[in-house]
Design a protein that fits this description.
With about 375 residues, the chain is α/β, with parallel strands linked by helices. It has 16 helices and 13 strands. Helix 1 packs across helix 16 (about 360-379), helix 9 runs parallel beside helix 10 (about 245-255) and helix 9 crosses helix 14 (about 330-340).
């Protein structure tokens, strides 16, 4: 489609109304990339009642917004039964509507695209809240309407094709990107991380506290190391989610709990400072759809220990030490290797830099726009 007739896209940016987790990062990058393209006219909307007042603020200047209110809980309840309210009602007329967080509104004449970040809700329902468990039936309804599925990795694309075979020929992987950070400044250098951690030597975990992140396993691994390494700390940075009680119980059992630093959500320079100052990043998740955090760590030169799961073999590959999820002894051993062996750490970081270079948001946005066109042409 020519630049003077841009493709009109309605993008759900509800996730930007809260402190950005991984989904928020993806939505932010998609929005900025789409807004910069002359061949796309993007309108941001949110499935929210209270949040609509902040929508223009969170999307930034130059992005069209629709502030028509509709509560998320009521919308999902309606969409589980009928194809209303439609994207046309929520965001105005468009050729494509994109739901970038597992749920897409009925198109109301627009082609539908839904991003599936992972299949935790179908593969590990015991690790999910009731809210998360709502989306698989909604996805089935969207697929019956002809929706296309965007996945953030090839791994998740294969999983979706297997678990939702009715959409096999409408599943397209456009993997997430990673943006190289700016050079360190006094507000974002390793000293910032050391200050936040309360010491110069620490293992870092970044992410929302939830069961699939296996943070209690990490606490047990740290406890096994801490007795022989009196300067070592464990820093857990991220917002509380479902799973805080299990983490608290694990910390209470820990003999070296005083050296576990619990921080909330941090962004911008402080996040970079934490990553730069860490001796090792630990990412022991039982399941992930992509895993941006290990690539973030590698991009600033911090070595990584991650779980040996399909998506990490796809993304970080040989740029990290991979260990079986849930195995505290193996995790402790891998952390110890990187803490003790500077040459091994440097080699992994060098390999990891090549993995970082393999992913760019510009390519992601281009692939997503190609998907939009395919979906629009198929209407």
């Amino acid at each position: 489609m020519a630049a003077d007739h841009p493709l009109s896209v309605a993008l759900d940016v509800t996730s930007l109304l809260d402190p950005p987790t991984g989904v928020g990062v993806v939505v932010r990058e998609l929005l900025e990339g789409l807004a910069a393209r002359p061949d796309v006219a993007v309108t941001a909307f949110a499935v929210s009642w209270r949040g609509r007042a902040r929508l223009a603020e969170v999307v930034g200047a130059g992005v069209a917004v629709s502030t028509r209110p509709f509560p998320a809980r009521l919308a999902r309840l309606a969409w589980s039964r009928v194809d209303h309210p439609s994207a046309r009602l929520l965001a105005g007329p468009s050729q494509v509507v994109h739901g970038p967080n597992h749920v897409v509104p009925p198109g109301g004449g627009a082609a539908e695209v839904v991003t599936v970040h992972d299949l935790t809700a179908t593969r590990y329902p015991e690790l999910c809240t009731a809210d998360v468990l709502q989306w698989p039936p909604l996805l089935h309804r969207a697929l019956a309407r002809g929706a296309w599925v965007h996945t953030v990795s090839e791994t998740v694309a294969d999983e979706v094709r297997h678990e939702f075979p009715e959409a096999a020929d409408r599943v397209v992987a456009a993997p997430n990107g990673i943006r190289r950070p700016p050079p360190p400044t006094p507000a974002s250098d390793a000293a910032v991380g050391h200050h936040l951690a309360g010491g110069d030597r620490y293992v870092l975990a970044l992410g929302t506290v939830e069961p699939r992140k296996e943070l209690p396993t990490l606490v047990a691994a740290f406890d096994a190391l801490a007795a022989d390494d009196p300067d070592l700390r464990l820093v857990l940075a991220g917002p509380d989610g479902w799973g805080v009680d299990a983490l608290t119980a694990a910390r209470d059992r820990c003999r070296h709990a005083r050296r576990i630093v619990r921080l909330g959500w941090l962004g911008g320079p402080q996040r970079l400072g934490l990553l730069r100052g860490a001796s090792v990043l630990a990412y022991p998740s039982r399941y992930e759809g992509f895993g941006l955090v290990p690539l973030e760590a590698l991009s600033v030169g911090t070595p990584v220990v991650a779980s040996d799961i399909d998506v990490h073999r796809e993304t970080v590959a040989d740029g990290a030490l991979l260990v079986a999820p849930g195995d505290a002894d193996a995790l402790a051993g891998a952390l110890q290797r990187l803490l003790d062996d500077d040459a091994l750490a440097a080699d992994l970081v060098a390999r990891g830099q090549a993995r970082v270079d393999a992913y760019s948001w510009e390519r992601t946005v281009a692939q997503v726009v190609d998907l939009y066109r395919r979906a629009a042409d198929a209407r």
